[in-house]
Amino acid sequence: MFSLIPKEQVFFDLFEQAAKNVHDGALALEDLLENFRDIPEKARKVKDIEHAGDKITHTTIEKLNTTFITPLEREDIHELICRLDDILDLIDTAVNRIMLYKIDKPTDDAKALGKVLVHATQIITELVPQLRNLKRTDSLIQQCIAIHTQENEGDRIEQHALASLFENGHDPTTIIKWKDIYEDLEEATDRCEDVANVIEGIVLKNA
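Now predict its structure.
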């Protein structure tokens, strides 16, 4: 039935801002790992991006609490914006550990996980705008599957990375440091998959 009260469309703008910001965070992480210099400055850039993400999340939740009619179910709006924010939080945590642990150089596996995050978040930036028109369900689902593929790749890289730590005779301190960083990066890919899962749920509800 036609509604005389328009649904608030600003949420789609906020989703797109959040997705772009998450991708910017992944690119900043990749730059840090691939060009391992000026680390404090690059870590500050990641922190600034993470803070910007927090503001977008806060604005979205605040808007959700004051909007009568929403274009998607309230719990889906809340879940999607929070899972997007989680990706950035984990990227920031990984970078903080690199600083705290005084890592002297990144491993190839860390660089590979950074690239997975860049690929996954790029797909998210292409996927989120399509929520404005849920008629293209095939395209949405295919892109969600592509994110799942990236998460699987993240799992594979983490397993290889952890095995290498224990097989190559590293000292216990090095093992603990890199185990933490690898887990943060892989968990960030898990949160990308969570974003895909939320969007798949939205698609099914609105099919």
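The chain has a mean pLDDT of 93.
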